[in-house]
From TrEMBL:
Pfam families (UniProt xref): p450
Domain of life the protein comes from: Bacteria
Entry keywords, A to Z: Heme, Iron, Metal-binding, Monooxygenase, Oxidoreductase
Organism ancestry: Bacteria, Bacillati, Actinomycetota, Actinomycetes, Mycobacteriales
Keyword RNA-binding attributed: no
Protein's name according to its UniProt entry: Cytochrome P450
Family recorded in the similarity comment: Belongs to the cytochrome P450 family.
Coiled coil: none
Amino acid sequence: MYPTVGAEGDDDETIVMNVRRPAGFRRAADAVWPDRLRATPTARTVSDMDTRLPPGPRLPNLLQALLALSAPVVLFPAAAKRYGVPFTLTMLPQRRKIVAVSEPAQVKDVFAGSPSVFHAGKGNDLLRPLLGVHSLLLQDGGDHARARRLLAPAFGRREIAGYRGLVEQVTAQQLDRWPRSGRVRAHVLLNELTLEVILRVVFGVSDTARLDRMRPIVARAVDAGPVVMIGLGMPALRGIGPWKREVRDLAAIHEFLGEEIEQARRDPALAERRDLLALLVRASAEDAQGLTDAELRDQLMTLVAAGHETTATAMAWAMLELARHPGVQERCVDEMAAAGADDDGAAAGDTEYLDAVIKEVLRLHPVVPMVMRELQEPANVGGREYPRGVTISPSIVLAHRSDDSYPSPQDFDPQRFLGDVPTPTTWLPFGGGARRCIGASFAMMEGQVILQQVLQRYRLIPVGRGREWPRSRNVTLYPWRRARVELQAR
């Protein structure tokens, strides 16, 4: 389904056509990278044990970082074919060693490992400038446990059931603005839809004029590519070009979030509000270890940035696959019709096939291609000992394309998820273990609502072959042409 890099037997230099590291780049990177990162033991600890790590590409560190972010569906299968799994990538900052694993036993060791040893926050450090130092995705140890305890009630089963009506309402309003027929770029429309959903879920019925001003800023800030994401960690670049604009947009979002938090704390009707901001502010006020305003801001930034982009991208891939597979599409429609015929409405099992479609989409097109865990002390993964400072990375791309786990893994086949619960070591779009995505259930619910309403209104027709190359946006992979499909009114 995806092209590969180089021919069998080509070496790394042939693959990249003798790409050279820019003169002085390492010295410049060392000079501008934050002291906190340069002070970590990673480079010193790992360099003494390089010979004990699995082999891997010898490409320049910057190029490996760019390929891992922008073309993981090329880099990871090509490296696995040449070096086997596990293999080692060496990337910025400070020749960071990332060992890619994908076999179920290896993934299990990572997800079942002690959170005090397998640090996800340090593994996700690239996101720090975007999400903030207090983001749940970037915290470890006691800070992470405390933040997750305070956030978890907002994503309980009862709360998600309560959000469903709002998601249905917003989705219907957004679809009313879609054309009745014709070609569209589904990813663009879905980003607008899911951004509206998350803003309404997070902030409730806030000042609509303020939300109108923030929508384009949020959308632009989240649209950062791999070059911008890497450059944000280099202070010398923050005052120029696209990095300057990104910093300015993030500052505007932080100001908006700070104002929303302050207004919520003063709101006399706070106890009656059901939006996520209100739930978090009340939880913080009732808990002696409640979140500060700065912590709330970063958690809200994480919810807004990650909470809409990932769902929009997954649903864009889903619309592409449904357009390419009319039989699957019509089976979903038939399932909805049967559920609607029941006097009592849709029951829990009435979305079984649609749920299987969503799971297969997330398997074949993982929105986030890898999980990162930095070792704080030596650990055994898959029967191999790794030193402190190494980052162990379960590759979602490789795990989801394993012939052992998924026969004919390149095929789109929702049947493989009917009647079976996917195992957490072979299906990992939401990560796993203590760091599994806190919003996974909300994302699945939102995906159900969106696809149900889209298929009720439209028949999806492919444009051309209906295939699109995955393109990097922050750390997610979206369809290159923004999921071009033709809408045909039902």
